[in-house]
Amino acid sequence: MALRGELIPKPTYTAIRTITDEGSTAICHKCYHEVFQAQCVQKTVSMLGATDSFASTEPRLLRSLSHPYLIDVWEAQWDPEWGDQAVTFTMPFYEGGSLHAALMSGHTFSMGEAISLTCNILDALHYLHVERNLVHRDIKPGNIFLANDLKTALLGDFGSAASIQNGSASCAGGTPLYKAPEWRSGSYTTQSDLYSLGLVLREMLGGRFRYEDVDMDDVDRRLLSGNRTLRGRDLAVPSFVPDDLRRVVNKLLQKESSSRPASALEVQRALQNIQHLNWRTVDSEFPMKWAGEVTSGKLRVPRDVEATAVKITRGPNSGMIRLSARWRHRNANRWRNLEQHNLVVTEDNHTEWRAFFKSVSTAMLQSTARR
Description:
This protein is of the alpha+beta class. It has nine helices and 15 strands. It is an enzyme of class 2 (transferase).
């Protein structure tokens, strides 16, 4: 049982409720710090299987971690029930909850939000990898926390973090679904953290993985054979994602660690240089709908874009999909159709779908560039 306050007349912590949406086996309690008069979270993490984690070997270093996109650790204690087999971390409570909770609630992130949140975590990883010589070893939505507006991400849970020795650490700890293929080799590098973050980015772009349908025995078999935990079809990014961003995701998810980006900073720079129409999925079931926005310093009023995909039920094209797009000035009543982007495509031809979104994005971005 997690530590939730001292047995004294005036305890430091008052337990509020158990948190069950963190997407992990950790024990979490939302508490109130009576001295600081602030809400906080106590998270008990098992140290079994992660004997080289610096929470086990050098827990004092937890207090020395300081970065805008890392969760502050107020306190760390050996759990009274589990002894040195588990540590209870006390950290601030973030109203936005975890990324896992947001995904499970059905929240959809725009492409710009997904890029921005990923860049926050990449900034934190650059600090850990380069300045502190550490790997996190458990990057996943449940360990990424969101500010109240869901527009700032912070990396937390350092129970598995370990020092890099001779370029790598052991593959202890972590969550099976988010482990990199090199887990079998026993050698964990900074590129392994980037692989896990690539999975998180894919979820923000295309919606959460269907955890309830994942065969964990298959995940274990794939890890033991040195493969990615998910199959290619499960890792596909949505059609609205531009080629530059698609390449970043695909590179992060390369099976061979040597084929992935060399550093978090390299990925961050690549993401920040991507020009894109800011799409967000509104409805992923037919009739499908996507909302986009174009903002530019040259535009006095931002532009809204809408794309739809409707199944054709009659006529010679029955069974095919009609893709269409329209735009308007922000808050205007009148929509203007993009006639040249009204196409009929087959449902499973992803090349045609990508070409449609590319042409719409190009037309809208070029029209603002000419102003």
